[in-house]
Amino acid sequence: MNLSDFAPSLQFSPQELTAIVLSLKVAGTATAFSLPLAVFVAYALARWRFPGHAALNAFIHLPLVMPPVVTGFALLLLLGRKTPLGAFLAEYFGIVFAFRWTGAALAAAVMSFPLMIRPIRLSFESIDERLALASRSLGADPLWTFFLVTLPLAAPGVIVGSILGFAKALGEFGATITFVSNIPGETQTIPSAIYSFTQTPDGDADALRLAAVSATIAVAALVVSEILQKRADATRAGK
User: Quick check: 232 pLDDT over 70?
Assistant: First the structure.
């Protein structure tokens, strides 16, 4: 196959469209559900000192240095249908992760979580603690101070973390395919669809088309996050 085979064919097949929509759904769900926890954990790492601080930080970043397949296998051992926790969630709450799109979202959230944490933590660390002290001296309790003073000031980092997390979740493959397999219409996201196309005769054009979509979304996300980060840095510098 050469690139000329790809150029005239810009129409997506139903399988490709399903994979794109499912990828956006998985990435959006993963980002939405992990963001509140990421904000809390980032704030705790930035502002609190407690026993196990370094261990928590190392554990959070473990998915970045561990093979994604290992993470997916760990999720399967923890939340598979035949595991105690997986069976309990399925029987009493109707929540099933293994071999479902919800599991793909969970795997993507676990893999993207460390990337969300770092910019949010840096934003919290850059905020002058005297601002929070001033707010509390005026009668605001710690919770109101966090939501009305600290969190708005950290908003650029939160936005950047969300974008990076979304981009990572969109491209997640190893943990996802290990935990939920590669089921068309159910768990087949863009990366797993690309993998399937590369394993079939004459599937290179389809794989290249989806790769272009994935790269475009990822580059756009990175560009937006870089712009927002530069604006935040300029604001802090008083420019």
Answer: no
For residues 219 and 211, give the distance between their C-alpha atoms in angstroms, rounded to a whole number.
12
- Provide the domain count of the chain: 1
Q: Does some domain include residue 123?
A: yes
Per-residue tokens: 82 = 């035949």
**Per-residue pLDDT tens digits for 86-102:** 999 999 999 999 999 99
Residues 94-102: contacts with CB under 8 Å, at least 24 apart = 97/179, 97/180, 98/179, 98/180, 99/180, 99/181, 99/183, 99/186, 99/187, 100/180, 100/186, 100/187, 101/22, 101/25, 101/26, 101/180, 101/186, 101/187, 102/29
pLDDT in tens, 168-199: 999 999 999 999 999 998 899 999 999 999 98
Residue 24 lies in a domain: yes
Range of the domain at 213: 12-236
* pTM for this prediction: 0.86
Would 199 be classed as within a structural domain?
yes
